[in-house]
Design brief:
Blueprint lengths: L1 H50 L24 E6 L11 E10 L5 E4 L6 E4 L7 H7 L7 E6 L20 E10 L1
Antiparallel strand pairs: 1-5, 2-3, 2-4, 2-6, 5-6
Length: 179
């Protein structure tokens, strides 16, 4: 009887130890896995962005939403996703993917998605002034929205037929590379 109680106590202690280790290991593994999963996902994205020469190639075409109300008269940028690579500065050759939407028309008038990415020398006047201002300071892998008033876009002439005179434009730009 004494021997049975000792074996029963040892079995119970062993069962609790195994359950405790198993539970501890499972919950530790569970926490660790979800923590690692979250960190790994973020770290994986960052690593891809900084080591991939075209990090936005893995992104999908953005949807540009026109804000309600009167067309703004001031230039503005909104960082949608901060990049982790090189920072674009005047004189650099940059390569981007973009979508452009007219503020008044609410229609997409141009996009590089499904075509070759677009390259230009930043600050050299090869693009509208709003692009030169808005792309400067971006980091490779970043996505930025530019709200460009007509005076920094196509001005009083517009760009018929899709862009009206002095029309404010909204672009979402992904910076793919800086040279």
């Amino acid at each position: 009887m004494k021997f049975s109680l000792i074996i029963l106590a040892l079995c119970a202690a062993l069962a609790m130890a195994v359950a405790g280790c198993g539970g501890s290991s499972d919950s530790s593994t569970g926490s660790s896995a979800s923590t690692e999963s979250g960190v790994s996902s973020e770290a994986g994205d960052s690593t891809e962005k900084s080591s991939d020469s075209t990090p936005a190639g893995k992104k999908t075409k953005p949807t540009v939403t026109v804000p309600k109300g009167v067309s703004p008269e001031k230039f503005a940028t909104k960082e949608i996703e901060e990049g982790t690579g090189a920072t674009a500065k005047a004189g650099d050759e940059v390569t981007v993917q973009y979508v452009g939407v007219g503020y008044d028309s609410e229609e997409e008038f141009d996009s590089s998605w499904g075509k070759e990415p677009f390259s230009f020398t930043l600050g050299a006047g090869q693009v509208i002034k709003g692009w030169d201002q808005g792309v400067e300071g971006m980091k490779v892998g970043g996505r930025r929205e530019l709200l460009i008033p007509g005076n920094l876009a196509y001005g009083p002439e517009g760009s018929p037929p899709s862009i009206g005179p002095n029309e404010t434009l909204i672009f979402t730009i992904d910076l793919l590379s800086v040279k």
